[in-house]
Amino acid sequence: MLARHPRIGVHRFLSSTISSSSPKCIIPSTAFHRGSFNTTPALKMSTQPAHPALLIPGPIEFDDAVLQSMSHFSESHVGPGFVAVFGETLSLLRQLFQTTDSAAQPFVISGSGTLGWDLVAANLVEAGEDVLVLQSGYFSDGFADCLTTYGANVTKVTSAPGSRPQLDEIEKALSAKQYKLLTVTHVDTSTGVLSELKKLSELVHKVSPETLIIVDGVCSVACEEIAFDEWKLDGVVTASQKAIGCPAGLSISMFSGKAMERFQNRKTPPASYFASMKNWTPKAFLLRHALPQLVRALHTALNQILTKPIADRFAAHRQASDKIKQAVTALGLQQVAGNPDDQAHGMTAMYLPDSVKSTDLLPILGKKGVVFAGGIHKEIATKYIRFGHMAGPSRTDIEKALTALKEGLAELGYSKP
User: Fold this and answer.
1) Domains (ranges, CATH) in the chain?
2) What is the pTM of this model?
3) Top-level EC class, please (predicted)?
C-alpha cells in the first residue's frame, strides 16, 4: 500500500525548464560499468558488496553511479540546485519518450508504477464513463480493477495466457461504442507478452479518434521502443526500478496535450488528492517533492541511457533477448508468449518441464547466485518462471544465469527430449 504523502509546500517552477525547447542538458561521459564477472555464486557489481545476480523483471541491478547519486547530501526540494536537476530530468524524459511536443506533460511523483494507473483513473476518466482494456495478463487485469475502483465502466478484450488481443477484435470493440480511453499493457510482466503499439494507434485513430490511447509501460520503457509523438500516444506510465535503472520509489509518466486538455475539461474534480494532476503540474507552479536523492539517481540513470542514440539501446535489448530465447529453446523449454512477435525483449517467461516445480528450481538457482522470479498469472502460476534481462548486453551475468538454469534443471532430473 502506498504511504500517504505529507504536504511539503510549493515552489514557483519556471515552465521553461521542462519545455521541449529547453537547452539540451550536458550529458556526462559516465560509463555504464558493471564490473567483471566471475564464477562464484555472488555477483560483484564493481564497488557494491558481493550479492546474487537479480534477474527478475524489476527491480534490476543498479549501476554504481546511480546508487552513488542517492548519497547526495540532504537538500531543499525547493532550492535552486535541486530545481535545476529536476528540470533537466524532465527534459531527459522527453528524449526517452521521444516527444518534442511542448504540450506534452511529464510527471515524476513519489510512488510505485501502480500510481500511474491511479493518475489515469483519477484524472482522465469520470465515474460512469466507458473504458476499453486490452487484457494480456495479470497487470492489465490490475489496471482494469483500478479503473473500476474509480467508477469507470470497463470493457475487456480478453486473450488466453501468453497471447494478446488481435486488431480485428479491438476494431470490433471500438466500433460497438464510444470509449473515453483505451489501455494497453505494452509488456505484461506476468507473461512476457509484448503488445504492438504503432498499428494499434493507427487503428484507434481510424475507428475512434476521440479515444485516448494509454500505455502501461512499466516493464517496457527504456527497453522497448516507444515513439510518443510519432505513434500519437496519449499517455505512458512507468516506474523507476525497471529498465530505466533507478531504485524503486518514483512513478514516471508522460501525457499528451490532448490528454491534459481532457483533464482540464473534466466536469467533476479528480477523484484523488495525491494522484490529482493539478497538484503535480509544473505549469500550475507547484512542486511537491520529498525524494531529491531519488530524482538525482533518476537524472544519472537517464544521462547514462542517453549517451547513445535511443534506437541503439532498443536494438541492443533485441539482440540480448534473441540470444537468451535461443538458449531457452535449446534447453527444450517453451515460452509463455508462444508467438515470436509477441515476445518482450526485457524479460523471458518460460514454461517448466512437467517434472520440475518452480518451488524446487528457484532455490537451486538462488544457491548458484542468480535470482529468477516465479509465475504470477493465476491460470498458469505454478507452471512457469520469469527471467528478467533489462539492461541488455550491458549485463555481465546473462551467461551465468543460463548456465545455472541448465544445471538446475539437470539437478532436478530434467534432460532435453
Assistant:
1) 64-305 (3.40.640.10), 310-411 (3.90.1150.10)
2) 0.88
3) transferase
